[in-house]
Amino acid sequence: MERIGTVGSAYRTASLCKWRRVSSWVGGASGGGSDRVTCDPKQKRLPISQQKHRRFRRLDQTPTEKPKPHPTPDSTEPFPVRSPQSPPPISLRRSQPAAMAPVDPHSYTDGAHPVTAHAALAFYLDFSASAIHASALLTLSAPHSGDLLLDTRALAVHSASTATDPAHPIPFALAADADPVLGSALTLTLPPDTTSFLLTFSTSPAASALQWLSPPQTASGLPFVFSQCQSIHARSVFPCHDTPAARITYSLLLNVPARLSAVAAARHVARRDPVPSDHRGACDDALWCAPGRIVEEFQMAQCVPPYLFAFAAGAIGSRDLGPRTRVYAEGGDTLLDDAAREFAGVEDMVKVGESLFGPYEWERFDLLVLPPSFPYGGMENPRMVFLTPTVIKGDAAGAQVVAHELAHSWTGNLITNKTNEDFWLNEGFTTYAERRIVEVVQGEERAALNMGIGWRGLNRMMERFKDNMEFTKLKPKMAGIDPDDVYSEVPYEKGFQFLWRIERQIGRPAFDEFLKKYIATFKFQSIDTETFLEFLKANVPGIENQVDLDVWIEGTGIPPDAMEPDSATYRKICTLAAEFKSGKIPSEDEVADWSGQEWELYLENLSKDVEASQVIALDERYKLSESRDYEVKVAFLQLAIPTGCRCYFNEVEKCLKQVGRMKYLRPLYSSLAKCSEEEKMLAKRIFSEAHEFYHPIARSVAESILSKHG
User: Fold this and answer.
1) 265-323 pLDDT, tens per residue?
2) How far, in Å, are 73, 197, 230, 239, 326 from residue 136 at the CA level?
3) How many CA atoms lie within 13 Å of 619's alpha carbon, on the beta-carbon side?
4) What is the pLDDT of residues 391-444, one digit of tens each?
């Protein structure tokens, strides 16, 4: 995911299904000392931590229902061999209670039970209803009997059945009340030694992972939909163990109108006519095979965390960039041509990444430029990175966002944080890797500017979290906290600083050797911070005596041995920014070779108590409010709003209505909401007119800001 931006809680919508209570309080299986605890299927009991929930059954479900037969998966191997195609079993900490082995504070997944290893998904995309009618044939990592918990959010679950011929119904239940962070636990009571089972379900129009764009909202005039599952939103698309600890492989069938096409973060297998055997009960045969529909088929053979499940469908075109790189976009030929020029060097960047970090394991590195409502700068979905169109700036500067998402191919996708409490393992490593790539491709000065912007961002986060410094730790305690609410630059920039500190201590050649060994050792696995520290100490003997690891991981704030970057360009920009308060505006000669990144760093370093006349004078000379580079434009507008420069309110409004990237929404809405009543009313009016344009995650960010500041 992009390095900068903050999100809030996504919409939490109640399930569309009707339920009635069919049994009383339910509890957990007992036992001890075993990695896997099986339940007596007759007990129908949940783990102890979930006893507050009650069991329900759909009004239209009866014990004698027999779902349609469906294919049985090819493999029911109980303990798959560890490989990219078969995720490793979750390691359990023996200190956890035997009756319930929590894997992740943001998931109902029980570590004493097997997890989903493969999902065969069939999706009918219903654009008129903004919903997906779907089936999921889920295969577990080992046979299981009794209760099994899956994560869901706002899903209507229609049926559950065995993967046998004939199929038999499986009792299932959703919790009475959805948890505002976790959603609803789906409890299945599996027959003895179940390895696979089939679910049919529909998504909600308010699914937190999905944005449905109507024809007037797209460049093509045709409907469009895309997913964004990080951090814990895959559960709003299909029932799953929605934790990065449970890696899966999957197949995906997307049934879409024939005038549209689809892409996914997986290998494209075929575009073909639909056949009735495809959907396994996702919808009626007549609907699945209706005239004017087409099926796009995908396979992901390498195990990935559920948050990396991704797809999009619409009027999507493409341009080749290299032998394993292509750019896709919905915006037509002009946007495609601009994107192809902006990202022309992507193939070379992949080669640089391989030279630094080892083989590229994902076969292709394609890019999808999404409509401007996409809430992030980029999302590192394997094989198909999602990007905002705001990274296309006309000067190849957008390649730095691509460098970050590319770096995730090794750190984040190949090795993944086990929980969101370990998020720095994804983003700190990736920020470090990104800057190493930029250093090779664009030079040390450019990498230093990148570091300087990050340093300013990290210091800004100290101010943001001054009343709750827990979230300035590299490994914060996040039980009960929505990861979206505390998403920040801390894991990115403090994580980078930690790794850079280790590099400075042992030297770059030794750190490079360590990094390659780390990636080779843990690829296709999800690990926690403790595992990393054990590996670090084993491979860099004595490092704990040279770097205070506890201060870096468990300490709040910025450690004393963190270091501000230093370069001639960086020092010059900081000096010019300091002079602005006394009235000195940089001369044209001083900024002649500046790109957007130099201007961004300059604006970030300006004092926030400048006068309106100074802001206006700066803009009159350099037209920053009209910049095509949104990093520059938003940084300038954020500076202008508190000074009372109402002449810029039209630009603020246009920006908030044209772009849904949260990196821009948050500072602009926050700046308006903290000002006078006039600015607050302006913010509320803009939001009321623009909120339908925003992705559900971004919409919630703006709502929370306006609510907080009245």
Assistant:
1) 999 999 999 999 999 999 999 999 999 999 999 999 999 999 999 999 999 999 999 99
2) 12, 8, 20, 8, 30
3) 22
4) 998 877 778 899 999 999 999 999 999 999 999 999 999 999 999 999 999 999
pLDDT tens, 608-662?
A: 889 999 999 999 999 999 999 999 999 999 999 999 999 999 999 999 999 999 9
Give exposure, 489-505, as e/b (b: 16+ Cβ within 10 Å). bbbbbbbbbbbbbbbee
Residue from 2, 342, 405, 598 carrying the catalytic annotation: 405
Distance, CA of 646 to CA of 46 (rounded, Å): 58
Q: What is the DSSP string of 286-301?
A: HHHT-TTEEEEEEEEE
Dist CA 77 CA 85 (whole Å): 13
Kindly give, in sequence order, each residue whose CB lies less than 8 Å from that of residue 670, ignoring residues fewer than 6 positions away: 705, 709
In the residue annotation, 492 being an active-site residue is answered as yes
Q: Residue 330 burial (CB < 10 Å; 0-12/13-18/19+)?
A: buried
Instruction: State how far the Cα of 19 lies from the Cα of 421, in Å rounded to an integer.
Output: 34
Of 622, 582, 576, 623, which Cα lies nearest the Cα of 601? 576
Euclidean distance between CA atoms 402 and 385, whole angstroms: 8
Dmax over CA atoms of the chain, in Å, equals 82
Closest Cα partner for 156 from 211, 212, 199? 199
Q: Say how far apart CA 47 and CA 28 lie, in whole Å.
A: 3
Report the alpha-carbon distance of residue 524 to residue 359 in Å, rounded: 13
Distance CA 1, CA 375 (A): 11
Are 240 and 116 in contact by the 8 Å Cβ rule? The answer is yes
DSSP 298-311: EEEEEEE-GGG--E
Give the number of other Cβ atoms within 10 Å of residue 294's Cβ: 17
Q: What is the CB neighbour count within 10 angstroms for residue 707?
A: 10
* Catalytic one of 108, 432, 487, 492: 492
Are the CB atoms for 348 and 388 separated by under 8 Å?
A: no
The token pair that represents 68 in the structure block: 């349609």
HEC string of 45-74 equals CCCHHHCCCCCEEECCCCCCCCCCCCCCCC
Tokens for 470, please give them.
């827990």
| 253 and 279 Cβ atoms separated by less than 8 Å | yes
Catalytic residue list contains 11: no
